[in-house]
Amino acid sequence: VLLVESGGGLVQAGQSLTLSCAASASIVTISAMGWYRQAPGKQLELVASLTGRDDTTHYADSVKGRFAISRDNAKNTIYLQMNNLRPEDTAVYFCNVGPRGFQSSTLPGPNWGQGTQVTVSS
């Protein structure tokens, strides 16, 4: 599955962005998907995930209450709604999904997007 992220950009603190991750194939049977981010000089961090057949969501403490992950199976797209952005949210954001066929509910999966830059100014 090829993944293409979009929606990144430069915003001011307090503003919102929605990231999209378009998949090249159906995501209906993918039971693990997430958004990671990597800031300069820092490790890759899982910020939001959807796992299991019931789409259980999980968020990093740093984004809880501000970010929301969702999926649209009809559009083969995964979203990350980011509200009340902070300068510390500045990073390259990557979409990641597991294999098709309900094979796994763990992350990271084998499929990564190329990343989209999010920059938040103070």
Labels describing this entry:
122 residues; mainly beta; seven-stranded mixed sheet; four-stranded antiparallel sheet; 0% helix
Fold and architecture overview:
There is one protein chain. The strands form 2 sheets. Strands 2, 4, 5, 6, 9, 10 and 11 form a 7-stranded mixed beta sheet that branches. The radius of gyration is 13 Å and the shape is globular. The chain has strands at residues 3-6, 9-12, 17-23, 32-38, 45-51, 56-59, 67-72, 77-82, 91-97, 111-112, 116-121. The protein is built from no helices and 11 strands. It is mainly β. The N and C termini lie far apart (37 Å).
- Tally of helical segments: 0
What is the H/E string? Answer: EEEEEEEEEEE
What is the CA-based Rg, rounded?
A: 13 Å
Low-confidence stretches: none
Helix content: under 10%
Structural class: mainly beta
Estimate what percentage of residues fall within beta strands.
Answer: over 45%
Shape: globular
The count of DSSP E runs of length 2 or more, i.e. the number of strands, is 11
The overall pLDDT average reads 96
| Main sheet overview | 7 strands, mixed
What is the distance, rounded to the nearest whole angstrom, between the alpha carbons of the first and last residues?
37 Å
